[in-house]
Every structure is written in structure tokens, then in C-alpha cells.
Specification:
The chain is an all-alpha fold. It has 4 helices and no strands. The protein has one domain.
Length: 92
Amino acid sequence: MRRLLLTLAWIFGILYAVAMVVFLVGWFGLFGVTHDPLAGVFLIPLGLPWNFAADRLPVALQPYASLLAPLINLGILRGLAGLFRRKPAKSR
């Protein structure tokens, strides 16, 4: 179970990194790309349900909260994987 959770965490982390790069390139207009307000659309499913809490923040902070929301889910996956660590056998 631990291996499965770690694999899911790695896949989630890679997807998050790709979505973050797309967001940063589109939001800040890097590499000659025009500013795109929908650049963070790939971060929305990765950051659920924490994106709903970000809606209560001021509008200026919402893009940054959406950028960081998937980190909570990644932390949860890593924490669950840590719960399934093998415990050393007790010696008699």
C-alpha cells in the first residue's frame, strides 16, 4: 500500500509541476506568450477541495492560493504513505 501511495504522490507531483509551469507561463506571459487568465485551469482539479477555501481570499491573492493548493493534497498523499511504513519486528 505504501508503494502505491508513493507512486500516486510522484505522479501527482509531476502533474502539479507541469500545471504550475503552464500557469506561470500563461499568467505572467513568459516566453512571449500573451497573458491568459485561464492558465491555471489545470491547477483547479489538482487543488480541490482547497480551491473552494481560496475563493474567500482577496482577488489579488487567489491566483497564488490556487498555485499552492495542490501542495496540500500532495502533503496528504505523502503523509498517508508515511503511515504505512514497515514497523520493525519486535525482538523477544
